[in-house]
Structure formats: C-alpha cells, structure tokens
Design brief:
Layout: E1 11-28, E2 34-54, E3 59-61, H1 75-87, E4 92-98, H2 109-124, H3 131-141, H4 145-150, E5 154-157, E6 162-165, E7 172-176, H5 184-188, H6 202-206, H7 220-227, H8 229-238, E8 245-246, E9 253-257, H9 260-268, E10 276-280, H10 286-295
Parallel strand pairs: 3-4
Antiparallel strand pairs: 1-2, 2-4, 2-5, 5-6, 7-9, 7-10, 8-9
Bound molecules: 4-diphosphocytidyl-2-C-methyl-D-erythritol 2-phosphate and adenosine-5'-diphosphate.
C-alpha cells in the first residue's frame, strides 16, 4: 500500500527529470552567477510528489524525504513557504516524496520537486497566481525551477531563466549515473571551467548541428571527467553505444537514440553493474498532463 494513500487525503503528482542536451557558459555577471545557453529536455521519468492540504496553516514534510536533506532545507518545503509568504494565505500542507532521481546528478530533481509543489499548491490552495508569477517565485529557489514550472522543452539563456519553448523530435535515452554527487556551486567556481564560449545560435541547434560540430558540448564535461575517475569510466563505457554527454553540472550522463528499441538494445549491451536505465524524452512535462486531468475534474490517485 502507498505510504500516502488517497483514502487519507493524499494526491500524487509527477516531478519529471530533465537533461541538458548541451550547455555552454558565455560569461559571468557581477553577482557571480553565470550566463549560459542550454537546451532543456524534459523526461517522462522522475520523482513523485505527494500532497495533502491542511487547514491549520502548518507546512510539514511527512516520511523520509530526500537522503540527507533536512526538512527546513527541502526545496519542496521552501517552495510551499515561498508561496504562502507571497500570498499571505493561511493554508498548510503535508508533503511527501518518492525519490527516484539521483541527487546531484544534473537531472534537476530538487528543482522539479519544488516546481511541482508550486504549480499544484497554486491550484489546491486556490491562489491562481498563474505561470509567470510561479516561475518568478521558482527562480528564487533555484535557476532550474522555472523550466519545470512552465513544463515545455526549452532553449534557455540568461542564468537559465530566459526560456524559449521549442519542439524536440521524439527521442529515447540511455541515462546513467556514476554515483558521484556533483555540487553545482563548486563546479561553477572551477578554475578550469570555460566561461567565455561564443554564444550559439538557436537556429543552429534546431537545424541539428552534430555533436562533433562542437555545438552540443557541455562546459562541465572536461572539468568533471578530469576530477572524477568514476565519470571518466562511465564516459568510456557509454562510448561503446553512442556519443555520451553530460547533463547539467553532472554527474549524470546520457546517450540519445531515435527509438525505444535501439535504446533498449544498446542498454542491454552495456557491462553489468553499470547504473544505467531507459527514459523517454517527453514532448511536454507530465505535470502539465496531470494538471489537465485534475482540472477536468478527476484527481490523480494517491
Ligand atoms: C547547471 C544547471 C543547468 O541546468 O543545472 P544542475 O546541474 O544543477 O541540474 C543549472 O544552471 C543550475 O541550476 P540550479 O541547480 O537550480 O542551481 P542554483 O541552486 O540556482 O545555483 C547553485 C549555485 O550555482 C551557481 N550558479 C548557478 C546558476 C548559474 N547560472 N550560475 C551560477 O553561477 C551559483 O553559485 C549558485 O549559488
Ligand atoms: N527535494 C529535494 N530533492 C533533492 N535535493 C534537494 C531537495 N531539496 C533540497 N535539495 C538539495 O539540492 C541539491 C541538488 O539536488 P538535485 O536538484 O537533485 O541535483 P542537481 O542540481 O544536480 O540537478 C541536493 O544535493 C540537496 O542538498
């Protein structure tokens, strides 16, 4: 039985993972944040956030939470608090999580969990702030939150917050984690990080410039491969099935395939013991689909 049953007032909501199909850093702002260009691809795989509104104004995490994340630091709890402070509402909520996305993997798990809380509580608390205000609130929690609030595959610039929705072709991914926790803040400070890449053009990306053309690179890849033998070993193993790429600031990697069968065959050929799995690229966030079902009157089950 679910730890968060519908019979006890819980509802379940997807918090999808993302991949950065490429990532280049074009500069650094006066406040230390880096300007970058990236393409976010949402996946049909991720965490499940459980919510149960409460009328006593208490925001509480229920159950285990993400490994080693204190309740007060949990981005889900902070998202609910930000929303309540912004609106001066007196609502509360119990929050639970089924954590599937490896932490510190560049898959955006914490950011996606927070975005799901923002989007769903906006509805459950009857606030109706709308997507633009929710995305701006999300940005206070992390540069990756707005993409998950908006829920569309996107070309991103600025600090990752200036988003242009784009359509991406269907794709399947062999996704892998070397089990290394890559700390985003520390990697942005790395002395050997390239921070002055020439800006890429969105048209070039969309017309399908190949990885060997140098456009689909990730600025963190050489840094992480030099620092972390487990990441280097994973790249070597994945090179047997295609062109591995790093997502975000790592340490997760992926190889893209045009169809499910090719991805499955490739995964099956990898050496045993590798932490690799299959994920489908989404056309849009599964959270948007769940909200649509909910708004049509059928609440997802606990
Ligand atoms: C690198 C990316 C690419 O999608 O993803 P992840 O690898 O974390 O998933 C993101 O830019 C990460 O976004 P997010 O994980 O939300 O990072 P934040 O919490 O906002 O920032 C953590 C720290 O990284 C640095 N930072 C972050 C974003 C940015 N554009 N420039 C930076 O210099 C800042 O020092 C900041 O304090
Ligand atoms: N609900 C949450 N899930 C995951 N991480 C969280 C959460 N709340 C806070 N964090 C913090 O955010 C950090 C980054 O996690 P995550 O978003 O999974 O990785 P990444 O930024 O590499 O995509 C974690 O190491 C953890 O300290």
């Amino acid at each position: 039985m679910s730890a968060f049953p519908a019979s006890e007032g819980w509802s379940a909501w997807p918090a999808p993972a993302k991949l950065n199909l490429f990532l280049r850093i074009t500069g650094r702002r006066a406040d230390g944040y880096h300007t970058l260009q990236t393409v976010f691809r949402l996946l049909d795989w991720g965490d499940v956030v459980h919510l149960r509104p409460r009328r006593d104004g208490v925001i509480a995490r229920v159950g285990a939470g993400a490994d080693g994340v204190a309740e007060a630091d949990d981005l889900m709890v902070r998202a609910a608090e930000v929303l309540r402070n912004e609106t001066n509402c007196s609502e509360g909520v119990d929050i639970g999580i089924e954590k599937n996305i490896p932490m510190g993997g560049g898959f955006g798990g914490g950011s996606s969990d927070a975005a799901t809380v923002l989007v769903v509580l906006d509805r459950l608390w009857g606030l109706n702030l709308g997507v633009d205000r929710l995305a701006a609130l999300g940005l206070q929690l992390g540069a990756d939150v707005p993409i998950f609030v908006r829920g569309h595959n996107a070309w991103a610039e600025g600090v990752g917050d200036l988003l242009t929705a784009i359509d991406l072709p269907p794709a399947w991914y062999a996704v892998a984690s070397p089990g290394v926790h890559a700390t985003t803040a520390a990697l942005f400070q790395a002395h050997d990080l390239t921070r002055n890449a020439a800006p890429a053009k969105i048209a070039g990306f969309l017309s399908g410039i190949s990885p060997s053309g140098g456009v689909l690179d990730n600025a963190f890849e050489p840094v992480l491969r030099r620092r972390e033998p487990a990441v280097e070993a994973l790249f070597t193993a994945l090179a047997s099935i295609g062109t591995p790429r790093l997502t975000g600031s790592g340490s997760g990697c992926f190889v893209e395939f045009a169809d499910r069968e090719s991805a499955e065959t490739a995964l099956a050929s990898l050496p045993p013991g590798l932490n690799a799995w299959l994920a489908r690229g989404a056309d849009r966030s599964p959270l948007l689909d769940a909200m649509e079902v909910f708004n049509a009157g059928a609440s997802p089950s606990g």
